[in-house]
Amino acid sequence: MDDGSRVSGGADAGVTAAFDAVARVGFDAARGVYRVHRRPDHPEPVSYLVVEGVSAVTGRSMRDLDPLNDTLDPDALDAVLGDDSRSNASVRFEYAGCRIEVSGTGEVLIRPS
């Protein structure tokens, strides 16, 4: 999704970004991946960020996407890689035509297939 806006400064300099209610979704052209960042004032679980990020990347409504639990257990994802995890673990899976990677640092990466 490219709404023409740009993030300025810092590590995200030059990354195309879209701003949603809960997350910021930016495209990192150097890596060819969308990165989803939680806004600090919205403590939504990582499973919600995955669905919202895929919605933003694909341009489909969250309601039009298949339920995430048809792909994996969202509660397990939140438990293993939620806010307090800070682990070295990561989970990779396919969802709604996208390859998803969620890390223990809370980073969500989305690559459309």
Architecture overview:
It contains 2 helices and 6 strands, in the order βββααβββ. The protein has 113 residues and is of the alpha+beta class. A 6-stranded antiparallel beta sheet has the order 1-2-3-6-5-4, covered by helices on one side. A hairpin with a 4-residue loop joins strand 5 and strand 6 (108-112). The radius of gyration is 13 Å and the shape is globular. Residues 1-20 have low confidence and may be disordered. This is HalOD1 output domain-containing protein. It comes from Halobaculum lipolyticum. InterPro entries: HalOD1.
Question: What's the SSE blueprint?
Answer:
Blueprint: E1 16-19, E2 23-28, E3 33-38, H1 46-58, H2 74-81, E4 90-95, E5 98-103, E6 108-112
Antiparallel strand pairs: 1-2, 2-3, 3-6, 4-5, 5-6
Pfam family, one: HalOD1
Organism: Halobaculum lipolyticum
InterPro entries: HalOD1
Question: Given the helix and strand composition, which structural class is it?
Answer: alpha+beta
Number of helical segments with 4 or more residues: 2
Adjacency order of strands in the biggest sheet: 1-2-3-6-5-4
Taking all residues together, what is the mean pLDDT? 79
| Head-to-tail CA distance between termini | 14 Å
| Secondary structure tally: strands | 6
Q: What's the overall geometry?
A: globular
> Largest beta sheet, briefly?
6 strands, antiparallel
In terms of quaternary structure, what is this? Answer: single chain
What is the chain-wise order of helices and strands? EEEHHEEE
Low-confidence spans: 1-20
Radius of gyration: 13 Å
Q: Into which percentage range does the β-strand content fall?
A: 25-35%
Helix content: 10-25%
